[in-house]
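Revision sheet: structure tokens.
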Amino acid sequence: MKEAEGIIGRKLGMTQVFDENGRLEAVTAVAAGPCVVTQVKTQEKDGYHAVQLGYGEAKELNSPEKGHLKACGKQLRHLMEIRVDGPTSLKVGQSLDASVFKKGDRVDVIGVSKGKGFAGGMKRYHFRGGPKTHGQSDRGRAPGSVGGTTSPARVFKGTRMAGHMGHDRVTALNLEVARADAGRNIVLLKGSVPGADDGIVLIRKSVKKK
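Predicted:
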């Protein structure tokens, strides 16, 4: 039987800790859990195996949300799903905490990156800008040509141009768990994780071996 190899948490921010060799390491603190199992999906019923977790108390729920969460008996704000390889022993209503991880585990962290608003080509894609001399006065941060007039007579999809930057789903792969405190539900991860402080993240066992 498979267990849910992940948990939902809230990014607290970055700090520094000493490892066993006395070296200072940058870590990100995440308030991981407690989470409640809200749904268990199976191959027979849903076409795949997965466990849906809920995190954080919701002030209000609409009727469909109340019906979905009735079995677990909780009002939860954030719901996320973790795929498992086979049938799981977890039951709806069961609680999970930071004890699902231990020091040295490799994990992936999924979050929403910081939104930067509408950004130009230089900020968004690191374009170098136009010429700085020969009389140019208004092309300094312009993107340059984005397509010919006769051929192709249009702008190709995916052309790098100014536009909305950030606020995307981002996955940081193969981060190492520096510490996991089940008593306080705090997980320290080496390095940085996506998103701003206080953002919701999903921590799961790494899908790629380092």
